[in-house]
Design a protein that fits this description.
This protein has 22 helices and twelve strands. It is an alpha+beta fold.
Length: 534
């Protein structure tokens, strides 16, 4: 009777698995596994080697199949536990090695996944699934290389007009550490010099939510955003309830209170290869804390410091990316982010020195100090970066106030630029500080150079060349798409469409600051052309 029941349960569980009824399949396999383990314990008391081997083989396959069903339900911790149980019985079990490798790959644990696939390749069954197995091996090798080097190449995807699936990207943490920040709470800091365009980190969102917002109906747009936010919260809660590691990482993020006394986590906590989930506790989710944590740490995709590539650029999107949430705001930022599917790649927008804090622009930093001050209040903080301190002092000068009021009343942009440049000469403004003020009055500079050649000729050498302004602005506040466009427009006006090698290399350097070093020159030119038509 017992064997008949086991046979029935095994057939039923397999049928449910094939029908992709994952929950029911897990339940059926769990019942079968319990009976199987019970029979094995009794067989040990009355040894029957052939029967024992048969039971162990059945148990191994049942554990492997339950692991497959659990992995489809994203119950990955228990799925891995089942795989380990199956491999204890038969260490070279092909199906289990393949299943475990796929789970580890989905957890971004590339080296361990690669070990599983290599072990599976030695099994005679590998020849029957050679193409699929080799595909997993190649994916693993590529992702492991990305995670180790931070080298990403989106060239083919960009040149092909973003058609097809989003490129598969690895988790990557570059030369950074978390420290106490003079800006606010904790921040992310470079541990070595980083060149403009170099990737700093790459990670996939815990959860995202996207929609298309109507342009003309503000009330409807607000209602849609409320629904989005609810859906987004539900996704985060669901993910955290299934994963101890994610549950723990959420608890490490700030919820906006007592930031100065928060513990500074080791950056290795965020590396997926060093995951030790068994040592983590799984307490009850505090919904109030979850809500405040998401309010503080969520990122909007289409933001001042971000570029969304591919079909998602048509949507309004919000998401939670854990490590980028530690990046504070500065009005002289040094980093930007590139959104590719649910992944974000953070790169240096200008050269960064070792020990310097990594910072984003939370809002438009190509705007005057008073406007930025108002924006920071909306965000709930007061920016005390080096640039804001300098501009607060210099904006108290009467002439600066006159220039600002003149622009508001329709002062000619070229006249405004001339007066500002003359003022900076008298006030002995040098280096980055000159770049700060030019960035603050970027609208005046860009319109003066673009709209009226007579304005530039009128002032002659008393106002700087457009290239000098672009260089000082990008050095002071990092590369920006608008600055890149202005530089390219200047090249086109002077050369009639053609550009020399030196000028194009300068354009490429600016473009790497905007988009990162994630594509070859042909793809970068394609992206620049797309940007110029937006």
């Amino acid at each position: 009777m017992g064997e008949e029941l086991m046979q029935h349960l095994r057939s039923r569980a397999t049928e449910l698995l094939l029908r992709e009824e994952w929950n029911e399949s897990v339940q059926a396999y769990s019942h079968f596994i319990s009976l199987c383990q019970h029979h094995i314990s009794h067989t040990h008391q009355r040894p029957d080697l052939d029967h024992l081997l048969k039971l162990q083989k059945s148990l191994c396959l049942a554990l492997s199949n339950r692991a497959e069903a659990r992995s489809r339900l994203r119950d990955l911790a228990n799925a891995l536990h089942d795989c380990d149980g199956a491999l204890e019985i038969e260490g070279t079990h092909f199906k289990t090695l393949l299943c475990k490798g796929k789970i580890l790959l989905s957890l971004n644990r590339y080296s361990l996944a690669l070990d599983c696939f290599k072990a599976a390749l030695l099994d005679p069954q590998a020849c029957l699934k050679c193409e699929a197995l080799n595909g997993f091996l190649e994916r693993c090798k590529q992702l492991e290389h990305q995670s180790r080097t931070g080298v990403f190449d989106l060239s083919d995807w960009v040149v092909n007009g973003f058609r097809g699936k989003f490129p598969e990207l690895a988790e990557y943490i570059g030369p950074v550490e978390i420290r106490k920040s003079e800006i606010r709470g904790r921040g992310l800091f470079a541990t070595k010099n980083v060149d403009a365009g170099t990737s700093i980190l790459a990670t996939k969102a815990i959860a995202t939510e996207r929609c298309i917002l109507p342009d003309q109906n503000e009330e409807l747009a607000d209602n849609i955003q409320l629904v989005m936010w609810k859906n987004f919260i539900d996704k985060v809660v669901e993910s955290a309830s299934k994963c101890k590691r994610l549950h723990h990482l959420l608890s490490v993020l700030s919820n906006g209170e007592d930031e100065d006394v928060l513990e500074v986590p080791d950056v290795n906590l965020f590396r997926t290869e060093t995951e030790e989930e068994s040592a983590l506790s799984m307490g009850k989710l505090d919904m109030d804390k979850i809500l405040s944590t998401l309010d503080v740490n969520s990122l909007v995709e289409d933001a001042a410091s971000a570029k969304v590539l591919g079909k998602n650029s048509d949507y309004y999107g919000v998401g939670l990316w854990i490590l980028p949430a530690f990046i504070n705001h500065s009005c002289s930022p040094n980093a930007r982010r590139l959104h590719v599917g649910d992944h974000v790649i953070v790169h240096a927008s200008r050269d960064i020195k070792a020990g310097e804090e990594i910072t984003f622009a939370y809002f438009d930093v190509l705007s005057p100090w008073r406007k930025r001050t108002g924006m920071s209040k909306i965000w709930g903080f007061q920016c005390n970066c080096k640039r804001c301190k300098f501009e607060e002092q210099i904006c108290s000068k009467m002439e600066m106030q006159e220039i600002q009021m003149g622009l508001e009343r329709g002062l000619n942009m070229g006249d405004a630029v001339y007066r500002l440049e003359e003022g900076m000469r008298r006030w002995m403004v040098r280096g980055d500080e000159k770049g700060y003020l030019r960035a603050s009055f970027w609208v005046a500079y860009s319109e003066a150079y673009e709209s009226d050649h007579k304005t530039v000729r009128r002032w002659g050498r008393r106002i700087p060349a457009a290239e000098a302004v672009v260089d000082s602005v990008s050095k002071a506040v990092g590369s920006d798409e608008r600055v890149l466009k202005a530089f390219l427009a200047g090249l086109k006006r002077r050369s009639g469409g053609g550009s020399g090698l030196v000028e194009m290399e300068r354009a490429m350097k600016l473009a790497r600051g905007v988009y990162g070093k994630v594509m070859k020159k042909q793809a970068m030119r394609t992206l620049i052309e797309l940007g110029n038509h937006e």
